[in-house]
Write a structure and sequence with these properties.
Length: 132
């Protein structure tokens, strides 16, 4: 199998969910000012101690740990333990340009893109622009 086919198989829902060991992290992504931006919902964490990021082979991995508080608790509606999310970066995203910000429980990551604010086509989107 070619690497392209293997990458596409890895993005299929059942296979992709196997890569997401740990509780899922809720994310959103968009293009803004020539950057690919990812926002991850990670409230109640110390980013220096509890969040780890890695960028390898065109993928971003976010790992976070919410630790159980030392006090006894009665009812727990908050999830604790490992949280993890792996996202494929758009073609040409510069992993070395990563900028981060953690404000009000939201981790914001931004990567420079070649070509500025051009929209990123969806994977597998083979539509051609209509002639004018």
């Amino acid at each position: 199998m070619t690497p392209d086919i293997l990458r596409r198989l890895g993005d299929l829902r059942p296979v992709a969910s196997l890569r997401q060991a740990g509780r899922p992290i809720r994310t959103e992504d968009y293009v803004e000012d020539g950057r690919f931006v990812v926002r991850a919902d990670l409230p109640g964490l110390d980013p220096a101690r509890d969040i780890d990021l890695s960028v390898e082979r065109g993928h971003l991995e976010i790992r976070a740990v919410r630790r159980v508080p030392l006090h006894e608790r009665g009812h727990a509606g908050i999830s604790y333990g490992l949280f993890r999310r792996v996202l494929r970066l758009p073609e040409g995203a510069d992993g070395a340009s990563l900028e981060t910000d953690y404000t009000d429980g939201v981790l914001r990551l931004a990567f420079k893109l070649p070509g500025g604010d051009k929209p990123i086509p969806l994977h597998g989107d083979r539509r051609r622009p209509s002639p004018d």
